[in-house]
Amino acid sequence: MPSPACGRRWTADAMGQIQVTINGRGYGIACDDGQEAHVGRLARYLERKVAGLVEEVGQVGDARLLLMASLVVADELAEAERTLSERNGANGDAGRLPRAAESDLIGALDGLTARIDAIAARLEQG
């Protein structure tokens, strides 16, 4: 499974570990060694999204809240991509991420999506 921190493949010899709390529930997350602070920041961002949803719709279950938060974050990403695309249309390649950075970002987002899906599936099971 790709790392949520950098999009690379998990390796047993370079693993960091972090404990995060989302909606009052703790989760142990593995990440690339040295990426613990970054993953912690991502988790706090996701926690703020979940907390906002709880205020709006109440406690509708962890799996549903994580799904809804994921959709909110995906919408934010789509909006950012649209804005960047519009900027690129007006300014050529100005503001565009280098291809390698764009690939890393896509890999990291894919890894995060897979991790969220796995957590949601475990929550639905019990």
Shape: globular
* Contiguous uncertain segments of 5+ residues: 1-11
**Helix and strand sequence:** EEHHH
**Terminal-residue CA separation:** 22 Å
State the total count of DSSP E strands.
Answer: 2
Task: Look at the helices and sheets and give the structural class.
Answer: alpha+beta
Rg, Å, rounded:
16 Å
Helical content class: 55-70%
How much strand content do the residues show? 5-15%
Q: Major sheet: size, sense and barrel closure?
A: 2 strands, antiparallel
Question: If helices are DSSP runs of H or I spanning 4 or more residues, what is the number of helices?
Answer: 3
Order of strands across the main sheet: 1-2
Q: How many domain units?
A: 1
Mean pLDDT, all residues = 80
Descriptive account of the structure:
There is one protein chain. The chain has one domain (15-125). It is globular and about 50 Å long. The protein has helices spanning 36-57, 62-91, 99-125; strands at residues 15-22, 25-32. The protein is of the alpha+beta class. Mean pLDDT is 80; it is low at 1-11. The chain has a two-stranded antiparallel ribbon.
What is this structure's SSE topology?
Layout: E1 15-22, E2 25-32, H1 36-57, H2 62-91, H3 99-125
Antiparallel strand pairs: 1-2
Give a quick summary of the entry.
With 126 residues, the chain is α+β, with helices and mostly antiparallel strands. Helix content is 63%, strand content 13%.
List keywords for this structure.
disordered N terminus; single chain; two-stranded antiparallel sheet; 13% strand; 2 strands; globular; 126 residues; alpha+beta; 63% helix
